[in-house]
Amino acid sequence: MKGTVLALVAVAASLVLGDTPSRERADTSSSASDAGKFTFVRAEYDSVGVYGESHYFFEGRLWQRWETDYPEAEENFLIRIQELTTIQINPKPISLRLTDPRLFDFPFVYMCDVGWQWLSDPEVEGLRAYLERGGFLWIDDFWGEAEWVNLEENMERVFPDLTWRSIPDDHPILNMVFPLEKCPQVPAKIFWDSWGESYDMPGGHREPTGGIAGVRDVNFQGLFDEDGRLMAVATHNSDIGDGWERERENIEFFEIFSTKSYAIGINIIAYALTH
Questions:
Q1: What was the pLDDT predicted at 11?
Q2: Contact of 12 with 255, CB cutoff 8 Å
């Protein structure tokens, strides 16, 4: 991990002083030269609720829950993968519905901010088929009791006979490339700016959160199939994606959180591509 920090801090100053890229929807097309390279795929989905639940206003526009931090988080992460590993990457992240047949062309899919997520029957069937055929799912950036329950209820429809299990600190996924003692906790930078804690304010998430106790500890969970294959991981009570997206906005945030965000992200990708 020390090597990760040194490598990233070496470029931190230029990033903080550099221009922030504009928010635009990532191009879902890929060139022929990107065939066979790792493509970061984000799942598009619908959410229930009214304003502040299924969607929200931030930084000048409305956001659907599925697109939180998109595409800057992925764009920064892909740059770091290229800098810190030998993985060949497609620099353009894409987003797909779970019913899109193109999903089966990619071994990895990421979901973000799923606290209000709702899946249709075709989406449930699509996700089940994707995972049964060897796909890997990472669910990130959801906090507190109600948001965890919402995920459990959705995934019970996908795999009624499977339950989430805690991923132990000695699991290989934490040491694929960079050695980590545990899954790091990363707050949304907006909350870290407000109160300086490593976890989000409970009031910023779906009720009931369980208060401070409901968001204070990282809940690193895995969904294993009947043969013991890890099909999905959940970084509950952590916002790894914000560590990627906000890396250039504050040097202290970068050093404390972004370096660990990149380490766990690269470990998860390396695990997904090799298992």
A1: 38
A2: yes
With residue 123 as reference, give the H or E element that holds it.
Answer: helix 121-132
Q: Is 56 within 8 Å of 69 (Cβ atoms)?
A: no
Task: Give me the number of domains the chain comprises.
Answer: 1
Give pLDDT, residue 28.
47
3-state secondary structure of 109: strand
**Are 126 and 103 a contacting pair, CB within 8 Å?**
yes
Instruction: Produce one character per residue of 225-259: b if its CB has 16 or more CB atoms within 10 Å, e if not.
Output: eeeeebbbbbbbbbbbbbbbbbbbebbebbebbbb
Provide the token pair at 60.
Answer: 């000048």
Q: Which residues of the chain have pLDDT under 50?
A: 1-28, 31-33
164-166 and 230-236 beta bridge pairing: unpaired
Please report whether residue 24 resides in a domain.
no
- Asked whether the beta carbons of 246 and 184 are under 8 A apart, the reply is no
The b-or-e profile of 41-57 (16+ CB within 10 A means b, else e) is bbbbbebeeeeeebbee
Look up residue 157 and give its two tokens: 């429809």
Q: What is the pLDDT of residue 36?
A: 82
- The full length of the chain comes to 275
Position 23 in a domain: no
Token reading at 216? 């204070």
Phi, psi of 63 (to 5 degrees): -125, 135
Scanning 159-237, the segments in alpha helix (DSSP H) are: 189-195, 211-215
Q: For residue 228, is it left (φ>0), alpha (ψ between -120 and 50) or beta?
A: left
- pTM metric for this prediction: 0.89
Tokens of 138: 């990472």
Residue 2 confidence (pLDDT): 44
The CATH number assigned to the domain holding 187 equals 3.40.50.12140
| Residue of 256, 149, 139, 259 lying closest to 208 (CA atoms) | 149
Residue 66 sits in which domain range? 2-11+38-274
pLDDT reported for residue 19: 36
pLDDT, residue 189, reads 97
